[in-house]
Amino acid sequence: MAFELPTLPYAKTALAGAGMCEETLELHHGKHHQAYVTALNGFVEKNAALQGKSLEEIVKMSHNNADMAAVFNNAGQHWNHILFWENMSPTGGKIPGKLEKKITEDFGGVAQFKDSFKTAATTQFGSGWAWLIIGSDGKLKCTKTPNGSNPLATGEGKALLGCDVWEHSYYLDFRNRRPDYVQNWLDKIANYEYAEAQL
């Protein structure tokens, strides 16, 4: 069965008031994400070892495998973006109680968490992702990965939130101001209710 582009959980205009315009979503979802899905399906079609495997299985088996680098890039980006669309909301930015309590326990407060996440996002050189994960030790951490990699592949922990810091995520809205995009994403767009539900 072929992989498919997921439907956005909100209208393409829904995040415009929070700082992500309709054109950004159209290009990012309809062009960039669709391209990863199309390429991944092409690889699966040609490789019997990938057929019948879940997306998670393909991400894990292709990670750090030089012969499957292109497969990993597209599978990783498909996985990342499925999470990314769920990680945003037109009513985002509000941290529910259970998650806020955990953030305060593990980071010292919401401000410290946001600083840690922003540091991960802005120090990722070139393309990549910033993550809020829950590690195997049960503690929340902010991490980063290059290109299409993710916490599923690295085994660092379970991803609760992932923020895309490839330029196509923010260039139309914020030009080259990645720190402003990340701050706005944390304050107005991030779906913390989704993150709490993953705890």
List its salient traits.
about 50% helix; about 200 residues; about 10% strand; minor pseudopilin epsh fold; three-stranded antiparallel sheet; globular; Helix Hairpins; 2 domains; mainly alpha; single chain
Overall form: globular
Q: For the largest sheet, list the strands in their spatial order.
A: 2-1-3
Mean pLDDT: 98
Task: Report the end-to-end length measured between terminal Cα atoms.
Answer: 30 Å
Looking at the overall shape, the CATH architecture of the largest domain is: 3-Layer(bab) Sandwich
Query: Spans of 5+ residues with little confidence (pLDDT < 50)?
Result: none
Report on the architecture of this protein:
With 199 residues, the protein is mainly alpha-helical. It has two domains: 20-86, Helix Hairpins, CATH 1.10.287.990; 97-198, Iron/manganese superoxide dismutase, C-terminal domain (minor pseudopilin epsh fold). 52% of the residues lie in helices and 12% in strands. It contains nine helices and three strands. It has helices at 22-46, 55-62, 69-86, 97-107, 110-123, 151-154, 171-174, 178-189, 192-198; strands at 128-135, 140-146, 157-164. The chain has a three-stranded antiparallel sheet. α1 (22-46) packs antiparallel against α3 (69-86), α2 (55-62) crosses α3 and α4 (97-107) crosses α5. The longest helix is centred in the first third of the chain and has 25 residues, at 22-46. The relative contact order is 0.16.
